[in-house]
Amino acid sequence: MPTFNENFGFKESPFELYVAEREPRINEYAVKPPYFEETRRRISSLSSYILFGFRGSGKSATRITAEKETWKELGSGSATPLIVTFADFDSILRSKKVDDVTLNDIIDRVAFLTIEALLLWITNEAEQERLLELLNEGERKNFVLLTKAFYLNLSEGERRLSQDDTMKILQQNWRNKSIDWANKKWSSISKIIGVLVSAISKEKVGTEDISKEITELLQRGNSIQSSRMVLNKLVDLVQSFGFSGICVLIDKVDEHPKTQRSTEETAKLIYPILSQVQMMEIDNFAWIFFLWDKVKSHLATEKLFARLDKYAHSDVVWPKDFLENMVNKRLMFFSDQKIAEIDRICSDETDAVAYIDMFINLVQHSPRELIRLLDVLTREFDSKHAHLAEKRRLTGEDFDAAQDVYVRDVLWTVYDNRILSQLLRFNTSVFTNKDVQQAFRISPAGARGRIQSWEACGAVSLTGTRAPEGETGGKPANEYSIADPRILRMAERGLYDPEKLTEAPIDEDD
User: Which pLDDT does position 410 carry in this prediction?
Assistant: First the structure.
């Protein structure tokens, strides 16, 4: 039998790629949600903004699409900000706990990424040497000072590794450039550094000794004032090359091994910035955050209090019709406009709309997970029907099987094995602290800690209160619910091996 793509006439799989960074043509079939234009406007106007969204809600796709449009404007000669993408926190967290991250750590990394982005942009211009010659003495001094303090302080190996990651982003924005061009970038940057190296090695610009300023910059205190000073110098630097300012796009905060399983640890990582209103109010400098929605509640606690009332922010909402449109646009794009809706590839007796609704509800309106689930559908179609010679269409059986395979394979990568095992053993969709105590034979404090760990990873949520049984005037108990329908499906359909659950014995406290 032909493959799924051959069976329906797709030039490529419409659902094979569901990570925005790996979709170089995503802007050709992306469905722009209502908050996209607001994000795009704030990037252009250099106005700080926070976009909260659940995992897989399209935050990174929004960031990448906005980047593309901003770079496109720059190519047309418009005054635009220099886009700096901060989406990898390993350089900060490699040797530190999240609790130990300081404002200086974040500012130093932003400075490095800004200089790196500027150097890459300079090497993209035809008249590189002329651009450098246009700098006056003060601008050249600022360039040397910042490059020495924040870029050359890293080893060449670390700088090259970072440039490789950054090039993956920029190649999506500069699609007319070849891979060969990308490989030559390092030598181009080295050439520019060579132009400055004599001044840097002598720590002089002209006849002026700047060694003291470099030392002061490197040894500055961890204060709001010193951080603002560094960012203002960076703004002056990029403006000397014609940019309107700097826009730092902070994404994937929850995807580092030290943050990915904890909403609180994720909140702590960016708290040094969000805790200081002054850091969000720097002229010609903007922070645009793309954050896990479950982080928001931690930023309103006594422990991690941020003035979100002072920051412009929005929550990602993907209505059902947006997601249906997203699926249809992919079908259209990858079929060369031949297939406009999914029911065109389903059997007559299959209610395609109802099954897509079921898919949307299962993945909690997540566009990324919806595409992932549809990719499972295509792969299972090929696997189960490879022995057939004739062409066929999708049936309800195919949709049901895809959901089971998706849940069985994906959930163990989403949640810590111990937590998922606990919830599967518990096998209760709505519960109170007392229910957990009784089921696991643990103390109230142990049950409370267990529920908090379930909440921290987003598996359960507080959904109401329950009146005390057989009592009058007692304090209502908090009532919790399983927040992820995939967990419910796994439990209800037995999509796991009970003998492989990693939960400790049922009568042990946490």
Answer: 92
